[in-house]
Specification:
There is one protein chain. This protein is of the alpha/beta class. The protein folds into three domains: about 1-50 and about 95-115, no CATH class; about 125-185, no CATH class; about 190-365, Rossmann fold (3-Layer(aba) Sandwich), CATH 3.40.50.410. Helices cover about 35% and strands about 20% of the residues.
């Protein structure tokens, strides 16, 4: 019976997984997946799946063949006079919510977008600890007793003391004969990553643009955490000046001021140089803007910073240009002309929430 239940449960999980993959593009665009994270779990509403259920009626009236009645008599409670609807007794269509882990979510994302696996670099700062049995000791818990070594010690003692009888080879170990496995903790370096998010918060970046950034960065976080044991995330906002902020401030700063993109790139360079050596860290930089920089001269400075300071140190630099009714969008054009051949640079134009799906593929499809 238990085996049958396990089989049914596994089949149900496969159905749910299939439905999620089928609708993944819709979930990515709407942000419906990220309403609740919990402990590394994502709540996903699946209105397409109906749970079978029993519906019980009320015993307010007689059943079939019971009580008085005539043809056409309404059975059960009807609508109150005047069109006022009170408490009902009819079932409704309910939405089933299922929880899946972030790793499962990342796997589905990779399968759906055909994303290549990332090959990490740097194995120094983040470590994992594993225990290995490496020796034998005279002391230890009975659960780790080494029976073969204990038998050999008992046999050696019996022979050396003359108590061993070949015709009746009964060996009883004493405390001194017992041997136990010992272990040593092995520290294994693991690959680690740093993600630096930069966002333009000038007057032309509104709530819709920031919502696009929030949804896309969630999926990028999920994919990178799937590949790295340790991930550090830093947030930089900029208008005419740049400053580092926490996650809450990053997504909820009110837009104002002009745009000087080089300010963000200078701060990004400083953070990388001082805290994330490229030999030990897998570094991902993501910049979101509407592409409206204040001058061509500043754009040229940005290109210079990318060529000389940022791109040589990072796995990937992603620039996502979010469509805005106030931005010119020229910055994306300038980056394409200056750095189109550099494989460490990924560019994407995000016209609306529907463009998030393709933008994620543009950014993560290089496997870096």
């Amino acid at each position: 019976m238990i085996l049958r239940i396990d089989q049914d449960h596994n089949r149900f999980k496969q159905i749910v997984r299939g439905r999620i993959k089928k609708e993944l593009k819709k979930y990515i665009s709407s942000g419906e997946l990220i309403g609740r994270r919990g402990k590394d779990l994502i709540s996903i509403p699946l209105p397409q799946i109906n749970i079978p259920q029993f519906v019980y009626g009320h015993k307010q009236t007689g059943g079939v063949g019971q009580g008085e009645g005539a043809v056409g008599t309404v059975l059960g409670a009807g609508e109150a006079e005047g069109g006022q609807q009170g408490a009902g007794n009819q079932p409704a269509d309910h939405i089933l919510e299922v929880d899946i882990s972030l790793d499962e979510l990342a796997e589905m994302l990779g399968e759906e977008l055909e994303l290549p696996e990332i090959k990490p670099k740097g194995r120094k700062s983040i470590v994992s600890v594993k225990d290995r049995y490496t020796g034998i000791s005279q002391y230890g818990p009975e659960s780790l007793r080494h029976f073969k070594r204990t038998y050999k010690e008992t046999l050696k003692r019996s022979i050396s003391t003359g108590t061993y009888r070949p015709e009746s080879p009964i060996l009883i170990p004493i405390r001194q004969d017992k041997r136990y496995r010992t272990w040593k903790s092995a520290v294994t370096p693991q690959a680690n990553a740093a993600i630096l998010y930069m966002m333009d918060v000038s007057g032309s970046m509104g709530e819709e643009q920031k919502e696009i950034v929030r949804i896309e960065s969630f999926w990028i976080d999920t994919w990178l955490r799937h590949h790295y044991k340790g991930v550090e995330i830093r947030y930089i906002i900029h208008d005419a000046e740049a400053r580092e902020v926490d996650r809450e401030t990053f997504y909820h700063t009110r837009e104002s001021g002009g745009t000087v993109i080089s300010a963000a790139y200078k701060l990004c360079t400083k953070v990388i140089e001082t805290e994330y050596p490229s030999d030990d860290w897998n570094i991902y930089c993501l910049h979101f803007s509407d592409g409206d920089n204040w001058s061509q001269g500043d754009t040229e400075e940005c290109v210079s910073l990318l060529k000389a300071q940022i791109l040589p140190r990072v796995n990937l630099f992603c620039y996502g240009q979010v469509e805005s009714p106030y931005g010119t969008g020229q910055f994306l054009v300038d980056l394409k002309e200056a750095l189109a051949d550099d494989e460490r640079l990924a560019l994407s134009k995000i016209e609306s929430k529907d463009g998030i799906y393709q933008s994620i593929k543009d950014f993560l499809g290089r496997g870096r």
